[in-house]
């Protein structure tokens, strides 16, 4: 018995010492050595939500305030001149941000049906308005001005009830915050905004809501040194309540994009079209022209379901995740056209999800002959995602002699295939009834010898 106890104590001591040894230092070499939590790569598909005071004017872009007072964009200036009194301030829009139709449970149900595995909400955009009752917001938050409810907290609860992962977008900079204006004027040799607002509010966010994604933004005007990014990330990885599960992106300073961080998104709508050496994400929008909701949006601005599936296929084939953005209205609703796109996506993933979730890259990503075919691999099977119907399809990247059988996901009919003149696989498309398949894109599953 004494020997057993001794062995248990030795094991426990070794475990404790080993665990304590994994502490990340506040420098990029150490922080970048942290393995990316596996759940993120497996998830593949997420929903992005740009929502805030900018949703009230809902005109042109979520950068409305800066377009008005910074860029002096002609369309925005004319919009304000025509519709508002001369002394109207942007801050007054917050009093109209009522979110009276906001039903987070309904949102979460929609995201679940879309096939997404994680959801990222804007907790604070560049306007500085916090979507939670932050102690560091100087009353520029949802509880003091606007809806009088915790928008972040409510959605976090609803999303997790659907067994989806919850994450938060957070902007570092605030365009017109006096502290930031002063720091910028000083050439970022001072960092009052970071010390008294950014850092404490980020810790507050993490401790209150325990997000498994911190999607940082607003980094481009100053380096990671000004933002004190490595110090925050060391705390996040070592001591925060989400230290073992949280993932972060690469927007921690104007010198860090596509260089440092958990996953890289480099730039908006990043889709490099080739295999990358690091895990990456394609954050893109269903409205081609804006991240926030726009009342002037037309049907021609909205991506079709074929556009979405093409973007998804191209992204995961090259090893990325896709984060699909919709902009909710100021009332707290998601436009029917956005709902339709997400539900169409969910229908397709319901049939073809095994080619997406937990998949990996294959030795070929895009077919060598049929360019509208992308490949993934999972559990020893190869999947060819076909983005256009053809009676016959030649899979130029698949050697005929290596194929044991082929199946079309969502279809029970046997797939006939022959050897092409080039020695590749030539598939005869099965007959499909209108109700038998999600006819947007087709996935062939190759069972190899």
From TrEMBL:
Signal peptide residues on this chain, from the entry's feature table: 1-21
A cellular component term, taken from the record's GO annotations: lysosome
Record-listed E.C. numbers: 3.2.1.51
The protein, known as: Putative alpha-L-fucosidase
Keyword Transmembrane helix carried by entry: no
Organism: Blomia tropicalis (Mite)
SMART domains in the cross-refs: Alpha_L_fucos
Top-level taxonomic group: Eukaryota
Keyword Methyltransferase in record: no
Function: Alpha-L-fucosidase is responsible for hydrolyzing the alpha-1,6-linked fucose joined to the reducing-end N-acetylglucosamine of the carbohydrate moieties of glycoproteins.
Sorted UniProt keywords: Glycoprotein, Glycosidase, Hydrolase, Signal
GO biological process, any: glycoside catabolic process
Sequence ranges assigned to domain Glycoside hydrolase family 29 N-terminal in this UniProt record: 22-354
Enzyme class per UniProt: hydrolase
Family to which the UniProt record says this protein belongs: Belongs to the glycosyl hydrolase 29 family.
GO molecular function: alpha-L-fucosidase activity
């Amino acid at each position: 018995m004494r020997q057993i106890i001794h062995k248990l104590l030795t094991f426990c001591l070794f475990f404790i010492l080993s665990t304590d040894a994994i502490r990340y230092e506040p420098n990029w070499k150490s922080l970048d050595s942290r393995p990316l939590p596996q759940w993120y790569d497996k998830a593949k598909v997420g929903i992005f939500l740009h929502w805030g005071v900018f949703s009230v004017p809902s005109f042109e872009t979520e950068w409305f305030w800066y377009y008005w007072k910074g860029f002096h964009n002609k369309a925005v200036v004319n919009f304000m001149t025509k519709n508002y009194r001369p002394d109207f301030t942007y801050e007054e829009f917050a009093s109209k941000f009522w979110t009276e139709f906001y039903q987070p449970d309904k949102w979460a149900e929609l995201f679940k049906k879309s096939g997404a595995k994680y959801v990222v909400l804007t907790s604070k955009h560049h306007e500085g308005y916090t979507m939670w009752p932050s102690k560091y917001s100087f009353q520029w938050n949802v509880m003091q001005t606007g809806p009088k409810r915790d928008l972040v907290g409510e959605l976090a609860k609803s999303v997790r009830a659907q067994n989806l992962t919850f994450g938060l977008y957070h902007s570092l900079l605030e365009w017109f915050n006096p502290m930031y204006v002063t720091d910028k004027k000083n050439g970022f040799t001072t960092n009052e905004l970071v010390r008294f607002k950014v850092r404490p509010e980020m810790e507050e966010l993490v401790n209150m809501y325990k997000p498994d994604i911190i999607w940082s933004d607003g980094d481009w005007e100053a380096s990671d040194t000004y933002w004190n990014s490595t110090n925050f990330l060391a705390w996040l990885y070592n001591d925060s309540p989400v230290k073992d599960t949280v993932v972060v992106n690469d927007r921690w300073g104007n010198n860090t994009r596509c260089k440092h961080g958990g996953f890289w998104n480099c730039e908006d709508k990043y889709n490099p079209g080739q295999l990358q050496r690091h895990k990456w994400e394609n954050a893109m929008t269903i409205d081609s022209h804006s991240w926030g909701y726009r009342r002037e949006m037309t049907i021609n601005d909205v991506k079709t379901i074929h556009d979405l599936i093409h973007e998804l296929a191209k992204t995961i084939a090259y090893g990325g995740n896709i984060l699909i953005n919709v902009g909710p209205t100021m009332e707290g609703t998601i436009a029917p056209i956005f709902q339709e796109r997400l539900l169409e996506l969910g229908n397709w993933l319901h049939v073809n999800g095994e080619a997406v979730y937990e998949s990996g890259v294959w030795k070929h990503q895009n077919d060598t002959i049929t360019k509208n075919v992308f490949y993934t691999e999972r559990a020893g099977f190869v999947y060819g995602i076909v983005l256009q119907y053809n009676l016959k399809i030649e899979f130029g990247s698949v050697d005929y002699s290596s194929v044991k059988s082929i199946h079309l996901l969502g279809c029970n009919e046997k797939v006939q295939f022959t050897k092409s003149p080039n020695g590749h696989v030539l598939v005869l498309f099965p007959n499909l009834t209108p109700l038998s398949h999600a006819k947007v894109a087709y996935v062939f599953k190759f069972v190899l010898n």
